[in-house]
Write a structure and sequence with these properties.
With 66 residues, the chain is an all-alpha fold. It is built from three helices and no strands. The longest helix is centred in the first third of the chain and has 26 residues.
């Protein structure tokens, strides 16, 4: 397997997990990540998705923190 193919698979796996975390965050709400946040509209939830896909390890760590 070439290095480019491995990098492509790694990127696809990272993006897939990021999309799953982003959808879960958008559905269950940012209220779990930021407890004092105001109600979140559909538009705001859609704006959260791209950043969450990229930064999903940080978002997931904050989400799972007690």
């Amino acid at each position: 397997m070439s290095g480019a193919l491995v990098a492509g698979y790694a990127f696809a796996a990272y993006a897939t997990v990021g999309l799953a975390v982003a959808v879960a965050l958008a559905v269950f709400g940012p209220g779990r990540v930021l407890p004092d946040s105001p109600p979140c509209t559909i538009g705001a939830r859609l704006l959260i998705v791209p950043g969450t896909v990229i930064l999903w390890p940080l978002v997931l760590a904050r989400w799972l923190r007690p």
